Amino acid sequence: MGKTGIKGHKRVTVGSVYRTTDFDRFAYLPGQRPVGKRHRRLARSIEEDNMLDRFPISVFVEDYMLYIIDGQHRFAAAQMLGEPIDYVIVDPITPEQICAAHSPGGHSSNWTDKEVIESHITNPHYRELREFHREHHVAVGCAIGMLRGHSHASSWDKKEFRLGRFKVTDRAWASRIVFLVNAFRDKGVSWAGHVRFLQALSDVMKVDGFDEARLIRNLGKYTRPIHDYTPVDANLQQLEDIYNHGVSKKKLFPLALEAKRAATSAKAKGTK
Fold first, then answer.
1. For the segment 127-155, what is each residue's pLDDT rounded down to a tens digit?
2. Which pLDDT score is estimated for 243?
3. How far apart are the first and last CA of the chain?
4. Which CATH number does the domain housing residue 56 bear?
5. Under DSSP, is residue 75 helix (H, G, I), strand (E, B) or coil?
6. Would you state the pLDDT for residue 260?
């Protein structure tokens, strides 16, 4: 077993378990799941039945500090209560290896999108994603898609996002779709940022000849109720009704049909 030095121990051994109440010795690693409110619930459970000694946290030693690999919620709960924390020394590990340890594909599936963002917040693309999500009040999955040129995150986008490889690639598209979303919100359509409506909006925006100004202009004159439909097709038809509101028969445009054709063509070409 390897040995190393740390304040308070002449030598510590990898694989050995120690106990302390000196919480200043410990540090979190970048890339870990942020410690949320869950440690408060855990603290209440520890007060009722303290089993911390049965579940040591895992740490490695570097520059006289104990870096927590696993057990940050147990550590936070013990620190809050002032209870001794048991820890086992393991070999050093990188943040990337921590992610891989949680699941074969990267971050554990039970991490929320917001937790993944915070774990990569030193990356400017993730900071921009967080600000876009907060400012425009759309789900993280939708924000990922919009910043990459579509309406919501594809399975490939999600995988890259969870592996820490998300990149903003189409700010212009995100600005265009947000402009239309806000126009609908101003009309009282509070669900304009929901994924199915965003998908329909994205589909019509990719139709050749689509006139954004016409949609906004006719939206202002539209008096019929605008419904929160789940099926994308129903949202497409609703957008067509608004787009053609008040125009002559000669200027009617089959927006829903053309949007479906455009989406089918894009899928056949393998574009997102």
1. 999 999 999 999 999 999 999 998 888 88
2. 97
3. 51
4. 3.90.1530.10
5. helix
6. 94
Which range has the top average pLDDT, 22-26, 28-32, 40-44, 151-155? 22-26
Residue 175: burial class (beta carbons within 10 Å; 0-12, 13-18, 19+): exposed
Q: Report the pLDDT value the prediction gives residue 3, as an integer from 0 to 100.
A: 46
Identity of the amino acid at 178: V
- The region, left, alpha or beta by phi > 0 then psi within -120 to 50, assigned to residue 61 is beta
pTM, two decimals, is 0.66
Contacts of 232-236 with C-beta under 8 Å, sequence gap 24+, read: 232/196, 232/199, 232/200, 232/203, 233/260, 235/196, 235/197, 235/199, 235/200, 235/201, 236/200, 236/203, 236/204, 236/260
Q: Name the band, by pLDDT with cuts 50, 70 and 90, for residue 103.
A: very low
- 125 touches 135 (CB < 8 A): no
Residue ranges making up the domain that contains 143: 103-162
Contact 147, 168 (CB under 8 A): yes
Contact between residue 116 and residue 110 where contact means Cβ atoms under 8 Å apart: no
Q: How far apart are CA 77 and CA 39, in angstroms?
A: 5
Cα(235)–Cα(242) distance, integer angstroms: 11
- ∠ CA 170-172-177, rounded to 5°: 100
28 & 13 share domain: yes
Output the pLDDT for position 153. 85
Count of other CB atoms within 10 angstroms of residue 1: 8
162, 107 contact by CB (below 8 A): yes
Same domain, 134 and 211: no
